[in-house]
Amino acid sequence: MASTAVACAKADIPRFALQRVPFETLLTTCLKLLPDTKKVKIHVLDPLLDSRWEEFVARHPSASVFHQTGWLQALVRTYGYEPYVLTGTPFGEPLENGILVCRVSSWITGARLVSLPFSDHCEPLLRECDAAEEFVNWMHDACDLQHWRYVELRPLSAPCRRENSLRPDSSYWFHELDLEPSLDEIFRRFHKNSFQRKVQRAEREGLTYEAGRSERIMDEFYRLLLNTRRRHGLFPQPRAWFENLLECMGEKLQIRLARKNAVAIAAMLTLRHGSSVVYKYGGSNENFHNLGGMPFLFWRLVEESKALGIRKIDLGRTDLSNEGLIAFKDRLGATRRLLTYYRYTRASKRKVATLSASWALRQFFALLPEEVCSLAGRILYKHLG
Fold it and tell me: 330 CB contacts (<8 Å, ≥6 apart)?
């Protein structure tokens, strides 16, 4: 039986297939002009149309929620990005490897190949015997021939052990919470003031809890997200992104809400893949922070994940300069390690445009009404991927 994500993808086959065939044909034609020095023939497949990809992701131990077809379909629907898989496996045979990429086209930030937009990480799904440098060289050549700004990989590990054209570009902390210990042990590892006492305070205050995927829950979650993004001076993701995630990810997506006297005061959105849950988005009402809404939700997430046999909670990346968020995740008991993105940039490229908010710009955004921030997100967010 086809999954929700695959059914979601098939509904858009004619429109996206027509848009993307010329690109694949052009790449194939251009790359045939290069000297045939490659040891591995790289094939390009569409993960939304080729059922082998979803089967491969389901069985690969290094795959994550960001490899899933539901996540890809939401990217396509919301932002118009074009996902592809580079593989050494010939057509018609079971996939043995693959690197997932998206072509992003923007008149503001330029055209580039990214693995993967709005994804904290996207591990190349290669075997030890695969020649990773062959895939890197293919992307290098395609970048030059297509005049893209750059190619970017976001692996949890180094993309290639040998010397290649990819260079470290930006680094973050990657946080992960181990759920193998008992619930009592996990709670003991929580910071006493920042989490243990706040969870206990939330219970004393009688905060109520709800989890689900209804339109009402989505509305409450999105209002809290808008409030939080504006407070931090950041563009909010468009509402359509979450609606598409909800439809395409199906039961793998869950929204959790904490309420005080029926008023939603904190919310989080999580995604599940195999034995891992990703905490991806959160929002809260600052007027109720003293009640411990977010620590309360994290504890409920831990309890429910343990009951389902989840082994780890992926808390995503954090900017190295964001001391507050780093401390928050550390106090949750998470471990962290360096996450580095790698790029190949054309030598002749001009300076890439950026929409990264400076301190002054963040302060300006924080003063805007939520409606204006939401409109800015709908217009500009797709250029950030």
Answer: 175, 191, 336
User: pTM, whole model, 2 decimals?
Assistant: 0.86
Instruction: Give mean pLDDT, residues 107-134.
Output: 88
Query: Domain map of the chain by residue range?
Result: 4-171+342-353, 181-310
The two domains 4-171+342-353 and 181-310 share their CATH topology (first three levels equal): yes
pLDDT tens per residue across span 107-120? 888 889 999 999 99
- pLDDT for the residue numbered 26: 46
The pLDDT, as a whole number, for residue 372 is 63
Give the residue among 182, 202, 175, 194 at the shortest CA–CA distance from 302: 182
Phi, psi of 335 (to 5 degrees): -95, 155
- From CA 22, how far away is CA 368, in angstroms rounded? 42
User: Which two structure tokens, joined as six digits, stand for 309?
Assistant: 């046999």
CATH topology for 4-171+342-353 is Aminopeptidase (3.40.630)
d(CA 134, CA 30): 17
Q: Which of 138, 215, 183 is nearest to 304 (CA)?
A: 183
Task: Kindly tell me the number of DSSP H helices and DSSP E strands found in the chain.
Answer: 13, 12
Label residues 105-119 b or e (16+ Cβ within 10 Å = b): bbeebbebbbbbbbb
Which of 283, 292, 266 lies closest to 197, judged by CA? 292
- The architecture that CATH gives domain 181-310 is 3-Layer(aba) Sandwich (3.40)
Q: How does residue 8 score in pLDDT terms, banded at 50, 70 and 90?
A: very low
